[in-house]
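name: query_chain
kind: protein
chains: 1
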Amino acid sequence: MELVASARLRRAQMRIEAMRPYADRMLELMSGVSQAAGAVRLPLLERRDPIETVALVPMTADRGLAGAFNAQVLRRTFALQREAEAAGQKVLYFSSGKKAASTLRFRRLDVAQAWTGFSERPAYSDAQAMAHALAEAFVERRVDRVVLVYNAFVSPLVQRVTVRDVLPIPQDVLGGESEEEASESSSELGHPDFIYEPEPQEILARLLPVYVETELYRALLESGASEQGARMTAMRNASKAAGELIDSLTLAMNRARQAAITQEILEVVAGADALSG
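structure:
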């Protein structure tokens, strides 16, 4: 299992590396179009106050044997649930992975939708399905905020639990440069003027759903790579622990056998002495 996880981890890392440039360009395009569009009112940008319902999206694996990979995501998710309920907010779950679905079902929590079967190798179509369901719930006002909880891949030995808001679209995604940086760059470039076709508002309305899909796909890829890294590490530790246990038990068995042989020899010697006496 360690060797299989190691091979799958390399493929998952390649997919993440191929995805990151696209995601970075998407953010740049979103920032530029948002500044050109100015103040617009779009459903996915609406910030509601007060927030009545929070959608939590824990991303776990479909299988276990991966150390604390699943447990740390669920632990952080339940901590967010307690914080939301303490603030008087209702929590609605949209889960990814069989481990999250089974745990939420066991606790009898409110699960709107659960996706399973693609944790190790997610496709973009899986992210699209999740993004469509989450955006629909947000636009229909069934939820006022959507939060992802997943393991971000740092290295095969390190997976960091990450909490990320995806809806409404965070303002820092649309902000781009600060006002000082923007004024300096515009003065240096002589106020460049771009012609948008169609209008920036329409382009932004088309880009927002794609941004949500991209963020979900990135989170699924990060979670998939983290799962393989965690499983590889867990199986290596299990093999090492099993080897140490075998050595310990072998030593204990040899000592017991040696003690039994010694006892038998003593009994034979004692019997011989008794007969000769």
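note: Helices lie at 2-37, 69-86, 98-106, 124-139, 171-175, 179-189, 200-276.
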